[in-house]
Amino acid sequence: MSDVLDRTAPTEAPILDVLSQRWSTRAYDSVTPIDEDALRGALEAARWSPSAYNNQPWRFIVARRGTATHEKVVATLVEFNQAWAAPAGALVVFVAETARDGREFPSAFYDLGQAAAHFTVQAHANGLYTHQLTGFDPAALAAAFSLDASLTPFSVMAVGAHGTIDDAPEFARDGETAPRVRRPIAESLLADD
């Protein structure tokens, strides 16, 4: 792993280090293979995320760099995302299971988001870097993997070892060193009595 700038978020209240230090890079080491133990731990964290009625309406497609599965996933990404995400050690597709046995799961996407969040936090704790994206063709991805109509690809996450600034495409390099900013908490609160 390269020397990484301190990208700790300037928070308004104390939060866990694993949360304040997590950030989404576009500079992946294109040589180092995915750390299988770290990846397995992130998948395990996703498995144990909360879900309505314990439906666990998430499915994952894990596509390691250099495999046919990886090529299929990369082919569905928009060109902008192909440039920076393809070099990551793996791409993980997050798929919502919206129905099972004739029963619809209205909270499937919410629950899938929790699984993705748990995955991201554990991956960071395990030394991996992640970046989630939705710039891909869900229909093409579903077709490429012959997914049932009840399975909806919702997002793709690049996962792997951090590279150097030179590993990021030129258009993404400024973002690797730009200050981290979020709107103030007060602007997100619709009510706070």
Describe the structure in brief.
This protein is an alpha+beta fold and 193 residues long. The protein has helices at 17-20, 36-47, 68-76, 79-85, 108-125, 138-144, 173-177, 185-188, and strands at 58-64, 90-97, 99-100, 103-104, 129-133, 151-160.
Structure description:
This protein has 193 residues and is of the alpha+beta class. 34% of the residues lie in helices and 18% in strands. It has eight helices and six strands. α2 packs antiparallel against α5. The protein is globular. It starts with 16 loop residues before the first helix and ends in a 5-residue tail after the last helix. The model has no long low-confidence stretch (mean pLDDT 94).
What characteristics describe this protein?
193 residues, alpha+beta, 8 helices, 6 strands, two-stranded antiparallel sheet, 18% strand, four-stranded antiparallel sheet
Rg: 17 Å
Helix and strand content put the structural class at alpha+beta
Q: Which strand order do you get reading across the main beta sheet?
A: 1-2-6-5
Instruction: Give the % helix.
Output: 25-40%
The average pLDDT score comes to 94
Oligomer: single chain
Tally the helices: 8
Uncertain residue segments:
none
The number of E-state strands comes to 6
Broad shape: globular
Measured by DSSP, the beta-strand proportion falls in 15-25%
Largest sheet: 4 strands, antiparallel
The end-to-end span amounts to: 46 Å
H/E series, N to C? Answer: HHEHHEEEHEHEHH
List the helices and strands and how they pair.
Layout (H helix, E strand, L loop, with lengths): L16 H4 L15 H12 L10 E7 L3 H9 L2 H7 L4 E8 L1 E2 L2 E2 L3 H18 L3 E5 L4 H7 L6 E10 L12 H5 L7 H4 L5
Antiparallel strand pairs: 1-2, 2-6, 3-4, 5-6
